[in-house]
Structure formats: C-alpha cells, structure tokens
Amino acid sequence: MQPRHVWVDGRVVPAAGPHLSVFDRGFQLGDGIFETLRARGGRVTELDLHVARLQVSANGLAIALPADIGERLAGGIRELLAVEGLAGADADASIRITVSRGSFRERGLLPVEEAVQPTVAIQAWPVMPPPPGHLERGLHLVSSSVRRDPLNPLATLKTTSRADYVYARLEARRAGAEDALFLTIDGLLSEATSANIFLVRRAADDVQELATPALDCAILPGTTRSWLLGWGERVGLRPVEGWLTPRDLAAADEAFLSSSVAGILPVTRLDGRAIGDGRPGPWTRRARDDREAYVRGEEPAAAPRSTR
Amino acid sequence: MQPRHVWVDGRVVPAAGPHLSVFDRGFQLGDGIFETLRARGGRVTELDLHVARLQVSANGLAIALPADIGERLAGGIRELLAVEGLAGADADASIRITVSRGSFRERGLLPVEEAVQPTVAIQAWPVMPPPPGHLERGLHLVSSSVRRDPLNPLATLKTTSRADYVYARLEARRAGAEDALFLTIDGLLSEATSANIFLVRRAADDVQELATPALDCAILPGTTRSWLLGWGERVGLRPVEGWLTPRDLAAADEAFLSSSVAGILPVTRLDGRAIGDGRPGPWTRRARDDREAYVRGEEPAAAPRSTR
Questions:
Q1: What is the ipTM of this complex?
Q2: CA A269 to chain centroid
Q3: Average pLDDT of B187-199?
Q4: Residue of B nearest to A9 (CA)
Q5: What's this model's pTM, rounded to 2 decimal places?
Q6: B32 touches chain A (CB under 8 A)
Q7: Which residue in A79, B11, B95, B194 has the fewest CB atoms around it within 10 Å?
Q8: Contacts of residue B169 in chain A, CB cutoff 8 Å?
Q9: In sequence order, what are the residues at sequence separation of 6 or more whose Cβ sits closer than 8 angstroms to the Cβ of residue B154?
Q10: Is B63 left (phi over 0), alpha (psi -120 to 50) or beta?
Q11: DSSP code of B281?
Q12: Are A30 and B167 an interchain contact pair (Cβ–Cβ within 8 Å)?
C-alpha cells in the first residue's frame, strides 16, 4: 500500500507532491540524516532513542535541529498515522523521519554559514509480514564488495548518503539473496544494509553467547541491537560485542538480523554457505517473538531459561 | 547571485519551487548522480565528456538514463542559460546536472524493479572570480579524517551521496583552510572534495614532471585532469599518473587543484606545512591561463616550452 500523505515541515500534505526544492541539500548532496521507526497501535517504539540518535547524526554533520525536535516529531507522527489510518489498535506502521540540512541557492559543498532551516519530513507505511518463507527458510546474505572503514567519522551516523547501501542491495538481488552484509576493510563483520547482525554460539567455556559486532566495526548502534543485548542477559545468553569474522558466522549455531521495522529475521546463508545447520534456530524464534511482544507493549520475557 | 530558474524534467520552472517529491530517491538515499560543468559565452566546455561520465555513474548505480539524455541535457542547458541571462558572449556560468533514480512510494533501499523515470534537474550560476588572494596566496588544504577506499566500486562514480565530502569541507573550514584533501586508506593522495590534485616536480632523471594520483587512488577522473595530462605533454612537463604521498606533495616545486568550474587553483599548504616554497609557481599560472583560454574557445597552448 502506498502512502497518501506525508508530513513536511509541520504540515500533512498529499504524498503526490511536489514538496521539495531541487536546491535542497538532501537531494543535491545526500546532506541529511534519517531514522526508521515502528509504531504498533499508534504507539511508537523507542521514539526517545531514535530522536537521540537523530541528534547524534545531526551533531556529526553540524545540522542544527530545532530545540523542540522531539515534540515536533512526536506530533507529526501522531498526525500522519491518524490521516493514514495507521493509528488504530491493530495498526502496524513503519515510519521514516528524514532531515536534510535544508535548501539554499548557493552552489557548492560548503554549507552557507547563515542559519538555514533544515527540511524535516515524515513518511509512514503499513508494515507487511515477512515474505513467504523468510521466517521458515531464513534470509540468504551476500557479502558486499563495498567495505566499511571503522575510522570514518561518519560510519556510525545515519546519513542519507546511502548510495553504498543501495549498491549493496543491488548486489544482493543480482546474487538472488535477500540482503548484503558489509565487512570492514579489515575483513570483520559489520552490519547488513539496514540491520545489525547477531549470532548465537557456544563459547570456549561452554557458555552460550549472543554475539554481535562491536561499535568499532563501522555499525549503526541499532535500538533493537541495544534491546537484544539486554534480552540476551535476561534469557541466559551471554551478550558479547566483539570482532567477528565470516568464519565465526559460518560456525555459529544460529544467526539473525535485527532492525526497528522488520524486527528479528533469521539468517541461514552467507555467500551460498550454510550458517550452522542452515536452518533458523530456536533462539532466533524466541528473540523474534519476545521483540514483537515488546513492540506490542507487552511485558518483556520473564526469567532466564536455557535451551540446554 | 542566486538562480531565478531551474530546469526540471524537461521544463524551466521558478527556482523557488517546490519541484520534487519527498519520495524522490535522491532526497531519501542520495541515490543519484551528478556532473558540474562550465559554459563560457553560452558554450559548454566538454559537454560530451561530462555526459559520458554521467552515463558511467548511471551504469554503476543501475540508473536507467533515457537514450537521448545527451540531447535533452544540451537543450535544457541552452534553455536555462538563456532565461538566466548566462548565454551572452561575455557570460561565464557553472552548471550542475543532477539525476536521481526517481520517485516511488515504496519504502526501502532496494529499487522497485518496474521502470521508474529518473528525476533530471539542471541548475546554473554565474561563475565568480576566485576570492581575493586565492591566486596570489594559493589554497591551504587540510587532510580529511575521511579516508577513501580505492576498492570501493563507487569510488570513481559521481554519486549524490556526498556527506563525506560535505564533512571534509566542514573540517577544512574549522581549520581555516579552503579545501580538504582525501587520502586513501593506504595513505596515498586521492583528491580534494571537488577537484583533482597535481604537483610539479623534478624527477630523478632531472625531467620536470606533472604528477597526479592514478585512477586506482579513489579519484573521480576529472575532465580537466585529462586535459591537463595532454597539456603537460604539449608544454614539456612529463605527465605521470601514480601513487603519491603527502611527503611527495610537501616536496613538490608547485601544486594545484583542477576542476571544471574553478579551473586551476594553486595549492601552497597542506595541514599547515608549506608545499615547495609556499608560493604559487609559474607552471600553475600557465596551466590556469591556458585552461581559461581553452574554456573561452581559444587555441590551446602552442609548442612546448620549458621554464629552465
């Protein structure tokens, strides 16, 4: 289903547009930032964390957000979900917030020094269930030929300069895979094009671990990733943030992706090779169920339990 | 002076806009490509080379350009320069062509597989003379903390995902410099944020060289860069495309930047250290003069001559 409305700079307007100037720095230079969120029954999951991350991205690019950006966005989302019919008790929506540096007619990379009003847009779509078979079969990934540099000061910012990610998704599609996995220039696991990656494995001390690339692996610190690290502790999986290799992934018992909108999705192949036994595992299913319950506003998983 | 008009998808429209959809992939994801050109007296310099490079960028991102894109752009530029008063015999204009993958309302990184009309926009500005002192003093550069990966398949494409470049220009401004210089992850010279870099030096065999980073140093193959390599041969400077280091730059007799719009500009400092004697050199002045003459449509420099 295609959105009929969009929220732009304070107003709900028809999705058909036009809404923006060709001079908008977002269009000209990918000079912007964004967030992707989920709302069940009109209730936005972890809005405060997303607004905080948006502010971090804005600071990184020296984009001046209005002081009341959090309230503006909360109000805009409420308004947009209502007119799109995505605020009802059963509604499930994905939301995108996009902020660009704004529009000015001077040419060049360097922003004018005068105060420029950023462009702020909100879009909403209904969340569709995963395509048939994704949960049962698990996603197949390919490693992207684009490598990520952990020392890039923008590596952890969610900018709209996403051509690398579009390219990686095209690589995945050409290979018949559902998503691409980025490696760092050192060959470590980084993240998928719009999700963090986790693996479940038994460590040398025979403890089951929930492992994910550390923050210095050129990843976006996902809100669902943070939640999962806490979840691991609660359910009896030792959370580990570290340096992981494709070999670690292949040798894992289970692997999954995590993102705000799609939630937890099993991963069963990288570059055609099976991960573990090549089938989605029980921890992945439980993580998905528990996260979906959390998103619905239900209590988090209770006491830790082991699969052993 | 700010443009009063812009050309969008076949029509000259007021620059005030709005022109574009929030759903445009250029705004959402930096999923687009661009070219920057110069026109003296209404005559576009090397339009065919820019259109060819646009096509290379489009192929790299799998953006389907219309078959007659060259004629469309030539017509659009003509039309826009005329209404902007930039087509007269004395006019000097910079032109930007921006093409995004287009607009569709589905969410996500992966482009829809159906044919989507790319968004094509043309902007024009009058070319201003370099700021006071730039030619006499030379530009000061800082090396950017953003490193470029020569193995990135997008490194040589001119995409609109330019946040890295905006960031580098902000780094330069904070340091009181005019531009930033990218190094590769291996520490080699790459390019400035919107210009190639050249240095003039005496080689071990006592021949004067015009050296610039090779194509495998994560550079955009500039049209002015190509012209300069030919110019070097004509004027008696041995053209060299190679792997150069910041040390090579510091030790050079002269250095300059080259770009379509700004032409040739002297560079005299990197990270606060003088290049050569810290003053613009005679080869730089001659390169600038000869390129400006070429852009005006005059004959290229005549027989080689040496400064020795």
A1: 0.95
A2: 20
A3: 98
A4: B22
A5: 0.95
A6: yes
A7: B11
A8: 109-110
A9: A146, A163, A164, A167, B60, B61, B161
A10: beta
A11: -
A12: no
